[in-house]
Amino acid sequence: MRLTNKVALITGASRGIGKATAHKFAKEGAKLVVGDLDDAVAETVAEIRLQGGSAIGFKVDVTKPHTVDTMVRGALATYGQIDVLVNNAGVVADAQLRKMTDEQFDRVIDVNLKGTYNCTRAVVDSMIERKGGVVLNASSIVGIHGNFGQTNYAASKFGVIGMAKTWARELGRHGIRVNAVCPGFIETGLITSMPEKVIRSLEERVPLGRLGRPEEIANTFAFLASDEASYINGAVIEVCGGMTL
């Protein structure tokens, strides 16, 4: 198992990609700290424990540093270390530029961008002290190529790429690797709730002819978190089935 003896903190872990990543990491031997604004994070913890894994959960709002600090202190009190941080928590609030409200813009930036900053800032000192760690930022192909009606989301996801590259430069000397993963359109509740016609049009844009699965993003995170990726730092990896070709 690739993540044995590692402790991983994953935000946005109650559903979708975050939940799939928690399960994948547990199967690879990691001890899990899972956080989400949703009480359903307890279900993720229960499922992992039922399968023989080790996990603790926290209800956390990544826009509020004090709740993030509580989660990190709890993780360190329980496991003594944090080896991997997956900044997965994110929201959307789509609108064209002329119709977007300040509230929509601010909410997405606060969660997706400032939340990533808050969580990384909270764990980095413990990683430096242990002279190693991995930070993985969940970006999006929208953060590279933009998308109609997603000014706020594109800005936030472009921003976490910039953070990953900056942190890779700053923290590499401490043995900490930082990378960004850019999923394409993935079969999560956000996508599957769309009209069938819209889903079909998305699939037609992908050379592989289908949407991605949460487990495929989780597999990418697991590889990057493992020692097999020990020389990958500052990378931006698209996992989109070739959609951007």
Report on this model:
The protein is α/β, with parallel strands linked by helices. Strands 3-2-1-4-5-6-7 form a seven-stranded parallel sheet, with helices on both faces. It has a single domain (7-237), classed as NAD(P)-binding Rossmann-like Domain (Rossmann fold), CATH 3.40.50. The chain is globular and about 50 Å long. The protein has helices at residues 16-27, 41-50, 65-79, 102-130, 142-145, 151-171, 189-192, 196-204, 214-225, and strands at residues 7-11, 31-36, 55-59, 84-87, 133-138, 176-183, 236-239.
Summarize the structure.
With 245 residues, the protein is an alpha/beta fold. Helices cover 47% and strands 16% of the residues.
Descriptive labels:
seven-stranded parallel sheet; Rossmann fold; 9 helices; alpha/beta; 47% helix; 245 residues
